[in-house]
Amino acid sequence: MLETGTKAFDFALEGTGNRTFSLADFQGKWLVLFFYPKDGTSG
Amino acid sequence: MVEKRIAAGEIMERFSLKDQDNVAWDSSSARGKRLLLSFHPLAWTPVCAEQMIELEKNMQVLDELDTVPVGISVDPVPSKSAWAGDLKLARLRLLSDFWPHGKMAKDLGLFREKDGFSERANVLVNEQGIVVFVKTYPIGQVPDLQEVLDFIRGLHHSDVKSDIRTEHCMVDLSGKSLCVGDSRNTGIQSTSDRHLD
To answer: What ipTM, to 2 d.p.?
Structure first.
């Protein structure tokens, strides 16, 4: 698992609005990656 | 590894997948009936929605033809559940081939590795568990259910007149035309126990 102090690697994922999001899009900002199990659930 | 695509004449192995209500749906529940596996790429997309609504609308016709349809895609159960509600499906079962991801589609050679979802395809299995019809469709095209219904009606008539032999022709992705004869009367029934037990 990723540890604090590790340099984040670049990624590109398709998201809502048919947009591709990559790490570079957030350069100079803090970024929170919130992982969750499944859409359409209470969790 | 890419599996060889399932073809008419082959045996459909028994399978079990969760439906939109998180209940295990076992193919043996269609014992004695035909089974129409309607594969589609992804929930919440317009063509897939039309494909499922077509099945729901034709439930009674399918009942009369002793055929049980199921929709299958890689979407997880909660997504299928919300989508079934959105489509106002009353009877059609939507099966989740989510984990192992697309295993069912992979086993049948219908998984699109580069996309992570299945082909849009209809696979018809007869009462003996033998695949009698396989057709894939362009991703943007709603499958012609009428063609499948007509094909089933042809089989229906041949049940009565057992000397009728049907032949189905299809075009594969490379554009090659392939015709497969219905070999139900050539001893293939002896292998049927492998499916629905």
So the answer is: 0.71
